UniProtKB/TrEMBL annotation:
Superkingdom in the source lineage: Bacteria
KW Transferase (keyword) present: yes
SUPFAM superfamilies the record matches: UDP-Glycosyltransferase/glycogen phosphorylase
UniProt feature coiled coil, ranges: none
Keywords: Transferase
A GO molecular function held by the record: transferase activity
Origin species: Lacticaseibacillus paracasei N1115
Protein name as it appears in the record: Glycosyl transferase
Amino acid sequence: MAKRILFVTEAFGGGVFTYLTELSNQLVNDFDICIAYNLRDQTPRDFESFFDPRVHFIRVNSLTRSISPSKDLRAFKDLKRIAEDYKPDIIHVHSSKAGVLGRLAFTGHYKKLYYTPHGYSFLMQDSFALKRALYWIIEKAVALTHSTTIWM
């Protein structure tokens, strides 16, 4: 039986979309691939056609870009449930929001937990300094989880 990889992203558009398309299509011959995602304006309407038909998708409506305590708690629970149902051998979370929620949800339960930021929220120049400082504190705290960060 092929090992299972669960990719998690809230930023399912632009560069993250391209990265996940390429990576999934390369790995699907050797792994069972599932992508937990939510749509963005940049997500192609026919996004599934970019992927090998063996790639599985689970939409997570609660996984949104903006900070919302109620939606974030729901997303945290949804991600835990998805992992319990899918039983991945490897989890790879992408971008800041999925990175924070995923590392919190999966730490201690999965030995192979990876995070690729694709760009840190605390570096966004169009955000207020206080907001960037909050993102930096959150990122530093979550960096203490047992995950491996992959920079690109």
